[in-house]
Amino acid sequence: MMKRRFEKEEVDVVIVGSGAAGGVIAKELAEAGMSVVILEAGSSRHPQKDFASDELTMKNLGWQETRLVDGSHPLTLGHNNSGRGVGGGTLHWTGVMLRFHASDFETRSRDGVGEDWPISYEDLAPYYDKIERDIAVSGPLHFPWGEFHGPYPYPERDALSPNAYMFMRGCETLRIPSAATPLAILSAPFEDRPPCINRGFCNQGCMPNAKFSTLIVHIPKAVRAGAEILSDCMVTQVVMGDDGLAKGVIFVHEGKEYEQKARLVILASYVVETPRLLLNSADSRYPDGLANSSGYVGKCIMPHSSHDVYAKFEDEIRLYKGTPVLASTQHYYETVEARGFARGYTIHAHGARPVSFVQGIMKSTEGPVWGEKLREVALDYNFYGRLTMVGEVLPDLGNTVTLSEEKDEYGLPRPLVTFSYGSNDLRLIDHAVESMSSILKAAGGKVEYVVPDTAHLMGGCRMGNDPASSVVNSYGQTHDIPNLFVCGAATYVTSGGGNPTETVMALALRTADYIKSKAKRLEFSGSMG
Amino acid sequence: MESHYPSYSILELKEDWDPHTRGIVLSRLYREHGYLFLDWSEAEVLQSLCSLLCGDTRGEILQYVVSHIDESLHKQYGEGQRKLHVPEERVLVREGIKALEQSSILRYALPFFQLEEADRRTLLLELSEARMEPQIPWKNTPQKAFFQKVLTLAIEAYYSHPTVWSEIGYGGPAYPRGYIRTGFGQLDPWEAKRER
Q1: Which domain holds residue A174?
Q2: Interior CA angle at A279 toward A508 and A254, to 5°?
Q3: pLDDT for A31-90, tens place per residue?
């Protein structure tokens, strides 16, 4: 039997998921005095005991449960773009903190592609400021692109890595501006956490606690403020009442079903599981799933295109040294008509440990590399440098999360994730591969491998002012069910051309403010807060 | 094919590693139990397959690779993703091994692990490009998916073996130590030094 504090009670808020979105909103609402329960499908880990400096073992930080994939460009999921366990994806992200640019919120009006967001950069700016302060983001003195140019709360990381210096040298030769990447990784002590030791295993879980994750920052703060975190609890259904309001959720722990009643239900379960949960909660009153009167639940999902380019150098680079991402350029972020495509991308110098290195090369565009050939490349592992792109992918109604025929361990239909690039996406990728190759060449490298890949996921419950073509409003509140919220990357309208996590956290703060103000005025259902 | 770092041994650094990581890495040097999912004949086929996939014939490393595949299939951690209409991994690998054996017998009248290396290579090359003839044994088992699945599992294990780490000059586990000299061309004293 599992012990829980609010078993018999209706809490103010139940939050599904404990990653960048769920962790941040849980802390804010708990500190505002609300009773909060957070349900996390995965386990709770101790960074110094349960993490390891090992790629193979730490694959388990990803959401490994099988999803079916289809489309012309079937996605790689798991560790590639999602997390499982308290902390969610923040356990294995690279810590890159980039704000969206003003143009990201207006792609339809400015460039005639995608859709406009119901908010502008100005709506998020104060929340970007706050989250950067809250976790002491380290960043350059001057960040050359977008609306915010620094300074950041903490100085940039110093020294960077050999791969980052190689990249900056290439950029300099070509007169492309580059900068140290703003990171949620400490450059000096903050609160009870030490600065980074350049271990390099950000994707395997940070052992010294130098990298922010909600496991070590927001969830403990939420718990200190009275929230309850329940791990190994997979939410299988949102429960609806006869009044058209959500009443709580059903979840499974060690094979047994439980219910948590709540006045507000917040789904912070990312881009695959959020639509899946809404679709799986269908019943005779909601045959197409919850919050789906628009038909947009599970529609317009987007990854970032994330091709990697590997070049070989005369001298050693040693891709394992230091934080994986330490230097970047957003020189190609905004639309330039002459390039022949709309929107743009970020380029990062991106380190790699041996397994991800060979698993990349193996999937190179020139056909499968394996056996002796792969071993030959691996023996020169230390002589390779690597750049990666984070490219905007435009929303498309054909890219979806739906339910498949196959069942998972809970007896629920497995999600089917369908994805194909559009022609603008492909032209953008070609351009980025060309840019990355030029930088590597300018740095003295010989380009050897181009590896198609994707990163991150966005959309599937997009926000908008029109309930006919969006699932939630700009606060993440579903148009159909006023006490059911979606928080996180699932609400994205477009993908942007940079890493999405800072915007996830900023949106979570904005939703938290909205809920706090509404709760004070008792506008949801009954008494709260 | 030669290592740039012939005298570097990562295991000499093991006392610098945290106990959790050390336990994980050292366990790769010893076989802890028999197979949990594969039977011995499947393991034999798989081992000769992995030898070609990894480009290595050293028994102790291949043994670890096959044990890793066996354990992954036994524990069913989840596949992350699987293409629609591709059989789930346990079925894919088992049926793929069977189909490879049948192809080998139909083509060369010998089981796969007894083939000349050149013949094994031919079959594998065809498999990687999904053009292995005859097609009949592969009716329900997509060749490319089988090849990719075994390659992915084999490679992730092979490049997690400390002997291979030493050969490629990888710095390896780095907690609580980290790195101090990270400028271009700088080395910490414990890193592999290039010998050729």
Answers
A1: 10-520
A2: 80
A3: 999 999 999 999 999 999 999 999 999 999 999 999 999 999 999 999 988 999 999 999
* Half-sphere CA count of A175, side-chain side, radius 13 A: 0
Give the phi and the psi of residue A37 in degrees, each rounded to 5: -120, 130
Which chain A residues in 140-179 lie under 8 Å from chain B, judged by CB atoms? 159-162, 165-166
DSSP letter for each residue of A137-185: -EE-S---SSS-----SEEPPSS--HHHHHHHHHHHHTT---EEPPBSB
Q: Quickly state the pLDDT bin for A525 (edges 50, 70, 90).
A: low
Is the CB of residue A309 less than 8 Å from the CB of residue A437?
yes
Please name the amino acid found at residue A246: A
Q: Is B176 on the interface with A (CB under 8 A)?
A: yes
Which residues are registered as beta bridge partners of A190? A193
Would you say residue A526 lies in a domain? no
Selected residues 355-384 of chain A with any CB under 8 Å from a CB in chain B: 355, 357-359, 362, 367-368, 370-376, 378-382
B1 pLDDT more than 80: no
Closest by alpha carbon to B168, among A208, A353, A120?
A: A353
Is omega for the bond preceding A354 within 30 degrees of 0, making it cis?
no
Report ipTM (2 d.p.).
Answer: 0.97
- Shortest CA distance from B194: residue in chain A: A316
Residue A476 lies in a domain: yes
Q: Would you say residue A484 lies in a domain?
A: yes
| Count of other CB atoms within 10 angstroms of residue A39 | 25
**B171–A318 CB contact, under 8 Å:** yes
| Domain total of chain A | 1
Beta carbons within 8 Å of B105's beta carbon, 6+ residues apart: B111
Q: Where are the domains of chain B?
A: 10-168
Looking up residue A41, the CATH number of its domain turns out to be 3.50.50.60
Q: State pLDDT tens for residues A237-262.
A: 999 999 999 999 999 999 999 999 99
